Each structure stands twice: as structure tokens, then as C-alpha cells.
Amino acid sequence: MTDNPEPIATPEMRLELVPIGVSDHDRAKAFYTQAGFTLNVDTKPAEGMRVIQFTPPGSGCSIVFGAGMGDISAMQPGAVKGLHLVVADIDLARDALVRRGVGVGEVTDYGGVKYAGFSDPDGNSWLLQEFPPDLRRPGQSFRDDG
Where are the strands (E) in 1-146, listed by range? Predict the structure, then answer.
């Protein structure tokens, strides 16, 4: 054993899919469609299995729900709380959701970081989040490094 072991490189690992529990697949599908999310997948690859995947506008990460997917399908409906949708302009994003018929709370400002929340029909909750430009770090969403 050496005193200075070589550091172990960690390969890139991207969060691309977050499962959520819903009680009614078609009702959830209608809600996320209404909210403007992109439907990526709605398939029944096997008997008793259904996979539904949506991506929020501009996101690299999607959500998935459905049936026959083991622990994913067994998730408690409404148990996922505080999924963040980081936006450049919270008023614009909130207004777009409201115009689509989504009930969104008022914008709350916590020292320049702004939030507004909404939930799907099962209670899975989402937060729109806007960071002011002076608090954004390199590589963070909506930072202008130019």
C-alpha cells in the first residue's frame, strides 16, 4: 500500500430520468401535456407494463411514471416534492403555466432567489426557481459567461 494513492477518476454521470408516483396514468399524462412538457414515450413494451416519459421544456432531465416497472410503479403517488425547474425569468415561466391552466402559486423572493410552486393532480410538487445573475456560478443554468 502506498502513502499517496492515485486518485480514482469518476466518470461523468448525468441525471436524466426521475421517477414519480401517480395514481392515474392518463390523468397525469393530460396534466403534463397541459403544462407544456414534451411527451417522449408512451409505450406498452410488455403485457402489464406501460412507460410514460415527459421532459420539461429546455430540460436535459425527464420524468417517468407508469405500470409494471417494479419499484418505480410502486412509488407512493404524490411523494416527490420540490422538483426544481430553473428558469431565466420566473414571471414569464409562471405566466406561461397559468395561461395553460396550471395553478401556480405567487412568486416568493428569498433575497433575490425567486420561487413559485405548483403540483400535479397527485401532489408531486414542482418549484420554478430563478437565480439573479450576480448569484449564478460558472456552469449554472442561464449564466452568461460571454
Answer: 17-19, 38-43, 50-55, 62-67, 83-86, 108-110, 113-119, 125-130
Q: Which of 1-5, 41-45, 140-144 has the highest mean pLDDT?
A: 41-45
What pLDDT, in 10s, does the model give residues 37-61?
999 999 999 999 999 999 999 999 9
* Whether the Cβ atoms of residue 100 and residue 2 lie closer than 8 Å to each other: no
- Count of residues making up the chain: 146
Q: What is the pLDDT of residue 146?
A: 45
The CATH class of the 17-135 domain is: alpha beta
CA separation for the pair 72, 132 (Å, rounded): 35
Distances (CA, A) of 45 to 65, 69, 78, 107: 14, 11, 25, 41
pTM above 0.90, yes or no: no
DSSP string, 57-84: TT-S-EEEEEES-TTTTTSPTT----EE
Closest CA to 40 of 16, 76, 75: 16
DSSP at 35:
T
- Grid coordinates 415527459 are at which residue? 54
